[in-house]
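go over this chain:
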Amino acid sequence: MSVSVDRSAAAASDNVWDMAQRQLDEVAKLIGLSDAIHQYLRVPKRVLEVSVPVKMDNGGFRMYPGYRVQHNMSRGPSKGGIRFHPDVTLDEVKALAMWMTWKCALVNIPFGGAKGGVICDPKSMSLQELENLTRRFTTEISIIIGPEKDIPAPDVYTTPQIMAWIMDTFSMQHGYSIPGVVTGKPLAIGGSLGRDKATARGCMYVIDEAIKVLNRSIEGTRVAIQGFGNAGLHAAELMSKRGYVIVAASDSRGGVANAKGLDIAGLIAHKAETGSVAGFSGAERVTNADVLEYDCDVLVPAALEKVITRENAPRIRAKIIAEAANGPTLPEADDILFERGVMVLPDILANAGGVTVSYFEWVQDLQENFWEENEINDRLRRKMTRAFNEAYEQSQRHGVNMRKGAYAVAVDRVAEATKLRGLYP
């Protein structure tokens, strides 16, 4: 517990909450946001900190700190993932909740932003211990979640099975099934077709649009992907089928590269067999840092935050960076990349496919009417394409980068909803 408090309080120039607030501050000036609304949007609506006692396999129990933050609910119930990770901090969860607010507004779905996390190491826990943790955490935050209030979803090291446990725990408390309390569930209990690849597919759609406005061709465009988890792996799979050439990929244990293109089907099979892309034959060994600076046209950071910094930004060779991860680029790096003519597709745009299809899942659950996958993918493409075009138009109008253009669209929508609703009492 003391570690999490220390980290949350750490005042560092690259503190993720400070970074999220700075991004809002810059856009507030750009769009002439009133000081009152600016200050209102700068802080979370609600922060819940809980202690989660978990019965362990040895018969004892351990305490785990957990958080659920609701940043804004002006446009509808809040929405956001839950992550299980040893490095979770309250500042991180607050920043991610704020980014979710902008993400939902940018793709114009009727949600506000939320996020949750538990400080734990899920890799060291048994399946039973993970279930115990999930059910107790759900019970602790059940006072503020629900299909009309706040809808969790998967995030780092949380899975459809964990979402199923959340749904079951919440439903048992109410005496009937409530599938709409959570998204990212297995299909058998109200999940949506297309959800597993939604983040990657949405990222690909906005990259497609960026390729168009830069007058490039998809065929033969070289892509490097840092992070080969759900988003990165599926992005590699979908993009290689589209005609992109994946030249480098990495995960937490290392990376591989081939200037002529990696065999993606083989790489995915190798990852499934060994747990990592490292050691894949027919490719040179590279580090995560190498992948960021690899000779490519498109870079997809799909791992964790703060990997693109003022130090490595001048060495990045990609012309397009699509942030499949949340917060991978520090503000100082953003400025350097913009000056160098690199188009950064910000996280609130590039990885919004996940929350968009989560919204579709929520709608399907409430209606008890489920759609075909081609309909879901088509709806997603239209949402992502429109969001890209609106962000690009704002970036061109104000002469700013795509992040500020996207924020201009999103913050204006949230501010308008806030003004129209007013304050009660």
Remarks:
- The radius of gyration is 21 Å.
- Residues 198-345 form a domain with the Rossmann fold fold (CATH 3.40.50.720).
